[in-house]
Amino acid sequence: MRKALRAVGAFPILNHMLQYSDRLDRTFAAVADPTRRGILERLGRSDASITDLASAFDMTLTGMKKHVKILEESGLVTTEKVGRVRTCRVGPLRLDEETKWIGMYQEMLESRLTALEEFLERTKGRTR
Amino acid sequence: MRKALRAVGAFPILNHMLQYSDRLDRTFAAVADPTRRGILERLGRSDASITDLASAFDMTLTGMKKHVKILEESGLVTTEKVGRVRTCRVGPLRLDEETKWIGMYQEMLESRLTALEEFLERTKGRTR
After folding, report:
1. SS3 B58
2. pTM, 2 dp
3. What parts of chain A have a pLDDT lower than 50?
């Protein structure tokens, strides 16, 4: 790990990208599953109990609880138990850091492609 | 699955969010790993062979090959074998769809929170 960090040490922007890695691990893994993205979309319409969600996605309560737990641990969903019913709600995580990481990746990709183009231009110039 | 799709049927925007799910599954899972994010960051500086990457991240060639394969299958990295050396390069995937999905999620979250606030305001008005 120290070696991996050293490898990008010269780039402050990249260190920043690594900084949030625990969080990014959790959130990206949470939204990498189609059922979990579906749950977020469903909760965007209204709050729902675990039972509602299990029924909407044709799953067992146990299976749904696992998905909700992953979403809750990543901060994408909060739950509240009143009596015997656990109600799920979207938020509070807004995924801003995730957008930021992707944005920085896109900038880096852009500058890398520009560098390659410039290299190809120079090479072309030399062979003329 | 049909049931899950029906659950969001009334919301065209959400159907759009589901549309790319195979791709989103792959890309979000690909960037959910700190080593793979590190590889992308490293390749943003310059192309590198599998051997370079394995050494930079203190991994075996076999381990690095697995990470590169996942990045390649998701379109985040391309590789080219010349002689005995396989060179890795960032791109071509720009993660635009991923940003779009997150953006739509954020809009949905925003409108959900607004709806909850309005509900609370109305409730407060009634109890006065």
Report:
1. coil
2. 0.81
3. 1-10
